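Structure tokens please, single chain.
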Amino acid sequence: MATIHDVALKSGVSVTTVSRVLNNRGYISETTRNKVFGAMKELGYQPNDIARSLLRKQSNIIGLIIPNVSHPFFSELADQVEYFAYQAGYKVLLCNSQLDPTKEWDYIEMLKRNRVDGIIMGSHTLEVDEYLSLHSPIVTFDRKIGESIPHLGSDNYRGGQLATQHLIDRGCRKIAHICGNLKLQVLSNHRTDAFLDIVKKYGVEHLIIQTDMNVFDQRQYEILIQALLKEHPNIDGIFATSDIIAAFAVKECIRAGKRVPEDVRIVGYDDVGAARWLTPELTSIRQPIDEFGRLAVELIRMQVEGQPFEIANVLPVELMVRATT
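Here you go.
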């Protein structure tokens, strides 16, 4: 196996010069740089990234922990984080916690061992103290865990307002709100706060349906919606806090013989790509997933470089009106 000394000998430069080329430090002429890379290619030399990270105290790796990689929102978020991380010179280690505290902790320990430059936390099954003890740059998504740790999310309250107001404006007079378990301390609960404020303001009949603690278990969505339509056959509006739940609502309404949107109007949340694949196309609250990815990476970079940053990062939402309303 070739060593850095072999590369130096082959290219006719010092080991120090090879090291400077590898770490992109100091002035190196293009001729010298080409000699070094040519020797590396010819010898099949692979730099020891771990050793280099120990030397530079920077790995150029970001850890991303999400609760469910198969969920459209988190898969799109991961895609955007990776895209912007790569543009900024980082690689991404993707960790799929599946809402398992033990698994999430194991991933955090792995990321620490790999000396990642920072961690983007999209899964929050552990207690806040576990995160605060990391002593590494962190960005949290949809959860506030400390006064000095930046968190990122959409304007959830405004999203809830837009969705509920839209259903009322479309003539809905009995609206069901299907959401995650409100015992989870997440910022997306503000969507439910807004829903309650708007229906109470207009005196609209309403009810709230919560999932169990495993909010990503899609098997429960059918059961919940079937029970809703059976027990409340006069429901004429549904506001779901994810596009997946909304898609199940469309399917179950059609299965129950209800027309969408003539009998039941449905609004989802996130505006993932699949919202436009459905028939009828899904009305949804758009979260700026691309901007989430860009800003999450930027907040890690700012912390690594000691630059000032905002703690609370709330991005605007938009109502995307389509065929389900």
